[in-house]
Amino acid sequence: MRRNPLPARTMKGKQTSGESLQLLPVILSGGAGTRLWPLSRAEHPKPFLRLEGARSLLQATFRRAAALPGVTSILTVTHRELLFKTRDEYGAVKPDGLPTPLLLEPCSRNTAPSLAVSALWAECRHGPGTVLLALPADHLIGDEAAFARAVASAVRLAETGLLVTFGIRPDAPETRYGYLEAEGQRVLRFVEKPPEALAREFVRSGRFLWNAGIFCMRTGVFLEELATHAPELLAAVRETVAHTPGFGDGPDPVRLDAESFALVPDGSIDHVLMEHSRQVAVVPADFGWSDVGSWSALASLTRPDSSGNRTLGQVRTVASGDCYVQSPKRLATLVGVRDLIVVDTEDALLIAHRDRVDEVKAVVAGLQAQGHESALRHREVHRPWGSYTVLEEGSRFKIKRLVVRPRHALSLQMHHHRSEHWVVVSGTAEVENGGGKSLLQTDESTYIPAGTRHRLANPGLVDLVLIEVQSGEYLGEDDIVRFDDAWGRS
Amino acid sequence: MRRNPLPARTMKGKQTSGESLQLLPVILSGGAGTRLWPLSRAEHPKPFLRLEGARSLLQATFRRAAALPGVTSILTVTHRELLFKTRDEYGAVKPDGLPTPLLLEPCSRNTAPSLAVSALWAECRHGPGTVLLALPADHLIGDEAAFARAVASAVRLAETGLLVTFGIRPDAPETRYGYLEAEGQRVLRFVEKPPEALAREFVRSGRFLWNAGIFCMRTGVFLEELATHAPELLAAVRETVAHTPGFGDGPDPVRLDAESFALVPDGSIDHVLMEHSRQVAVVPADFGWSDVGSWSALASLTRPDSSGNRTLGQVRTVASGDCYVQSPKRLATLVGVRDLIVVDTEDALLIAHRDRVDEVKAVVAGLQAQGHESALRHREVHRPWGSYTVLEEGSRFKIKRLVVRPRHALSLQMHHHRSEHWVVVSGTAEVENGGGKSLLQTDESTYIPAGTRHRLANPGLVDLVLIEVQSGEYLGEDDIVRFDDAWGRS
Fold first, then answer.
1. Cβ distance of A335 and B421 shorter than 8 Å
2. Percentages (nearest 5) of helix, strand, coil residues in chain B
3. CB A130 within 8 A of CB A123
4. How near does any CA of chain A get to the CA of B425, in Å?
5. In the beta sheet, which residues pair with residue B312?
6. Which CATH number fits domain B380-484: 2.60.120.10, 2.170.120.40, 1.10.10.10, 2.40.10.410?
7. Can you tell me the ipTM of this complex?
8. Is the pLDDT confidence value at A177 over 50?
9. What are the beta bridge partners of residue B458?
10. What's the whole-model pTM score?
11. pLDDT value of position B7
12. Looking at the complex, does the CB of residue B317 fall below 8 Å from at least one CB of chain A?
């Protein structure tokens, strides 16, 4: 395996590709967001939630970054399992021609490693001196113009060699956040998650700001400070980079080497660096920020009715107050209850007291430990070619709805134990069944006997929606032999 | 329309059919049971609920009646819409050869009219002097032997010309029940739904019993007492009987005339008769009775865990106590809550404080007023030939699972706007499609184009399970033209 300490090489001016950039937004999209279960799942984490209208938090973050002046490329660091979902999200909002390189992590090691990898990548591809703007993909920002102004201030400070944080004026003694004491742009100290009494004092004093988790800094300054304050972490990240094929010059996406990245210590940039560095500055800002870090934070985004109930979907309340209810698909009725958070999804229901929502994490940890399906994914599962939803499962049969994107195809495959009936609900299907190929229009159907090689494709320009009725002795997803697969899964 | 005051005729000894009976159980199965919504629905009322193991309350009531000595026929009064469901329930538990005549009401008028019709019917079919045992079909009785002993005592008293009630020794100051003050078998007075303070006093005194709503009396005595205390009601019921074809001698079931029955005043036998008659006796009894008349009553049937939570199905609780949760199909999680009743069904969810469960009625009334589907029926809909469940509906498509009973068939029918794909999941289907007839085995499928006459039948000895994918512009249940129907619906 190739082993080359890349930053050293690029410092010597031997950069292999790319152009010099002033500002590179880095979208950090790896988080799990278990606090918003059952809406978020391991395979459908918080950045993918559509909390406000039609756009996901990730799409909103991307558009916000793309709208900043001088941005000619946006880097994203995410979990490798989220590659296709991330591309889908960007595809729907991306301006033509804007490069959107991806760094894929094999596991999550928190923000410090993600940003260290990003800095090394940026030096490699665009030379030293690039200013990074680290943007968590799971925050809400209400005032985009104020955000852009704050970024402009931060970039100016970053260019002078400072590590710049964004400080939000607190409007409540929130105990989930990190606080920083500031005097103008100077940061005096960080205080992580203070107890409530202390948080109240901070808010009262007027000298404390919430640490928004957004950072701006030159790659060189950041890497130097990391070398000083977290040398082991940086060394482990350099090791990963050295073992990652094509890191400096390969095609997109870059898949970080799993074995070495697993050895990188876990750490947030706050803990690892900001709390220790003497080069930290803050841009006080007020751009309608929320980290939507709990169900109570999310609840506050919905307008209450006269009883203090905030409801989304089909909800009826009788003699109930101060509840938040999200029930998009089924009727939820509340009778004589108060202060509840109720979140209903296809396969899991959460009922929590609003003062105990932090314990949702414990529920999810328990589900994950048992490999419970509802901790991992929703009923609707995304695939490179589209998505499928299991509608019903029973003895010897399973019914799925498949959506295949225009000009996409599933792999050429075969099942030993199940046969499949396909009924086209909308769009056009191209079906390879045994030897022959045929086209099926809306309302037409076909039958794939067990043991027959087959492939489903959508040759058209609109989504293909198809109902698949499987029958057989064994209907597990693992009864599949792939002969040819556009995504390297055969 | 024929008009003949039947009881007068039968009093003259001109009974047209039947034999003299000593004891005729009358199962009263018309109630709605909105208090147990969303488990009960207008078309799936409380008697059909399976609260304990595999048998419905109706089946348990039927078996209990059939097991009584001397029972050679069981009469049931129910809503006409429940005919097929009732026959299904009985079919699964009925001893061979036991006659189970049905009186079908076009609407519900409470127990007094139902029992008056039953008494007239019994005199007609079996002569005067039959002893009726009125059994609500929605109660639980734990000790069948004690029940049989109490009935034997009641029959002896009824034969002496008394109206006999069953009095349950109260173990709590329940305010939903009627109480009766007793001295031995003599009833001193009835007190309907006392306030809690009074109920406490009643329980303490030891002289009060709960009125279980079970009655035993000779038809003649009952009708005479009705003539004295509720002459208008009795006259209106006689009017219905006179306008009902085949009431005295027609085949089963007897469908009560809708126009005249609608004019019968609503009344419970307690209010209308028992509270006024001087011929009332009580059999004190202790046979593990519960009317399961609310979610809190139902909750008490489930054993609590160490935190006082009573759970059925997939339930996880964290820092929660004294809750009742029923979630058979999906994962329900509770975090930091107390004293909740949570009932989850396919299409509706109830979350109620356990002290406010009586207000569930108000929720259902609101839903009924709006014709909300969840007030009327479950996703699974029963039909004379079996049942169907809508699995998924979308633009231009609907997916159903059909279960057709052995040797049953749907009507010969045609749809203008939709075509149907059928896939046999298990069993054998006989399909009439346009001109021809064919047999489909498990895993085979067929296609019914819009405008084609078709019929689906199950010629086999096991259930036929079939997935139907409908597609078309309009998919309402009313797009159906029936040409031939075994149940007279064409």
1. no
2. 25, 35, 40
3. yes
4. 6
5. B326
6. 2.60.120.10
7. 0.84
8. yes
9. B408
10. 0.85
11. 39
12. no
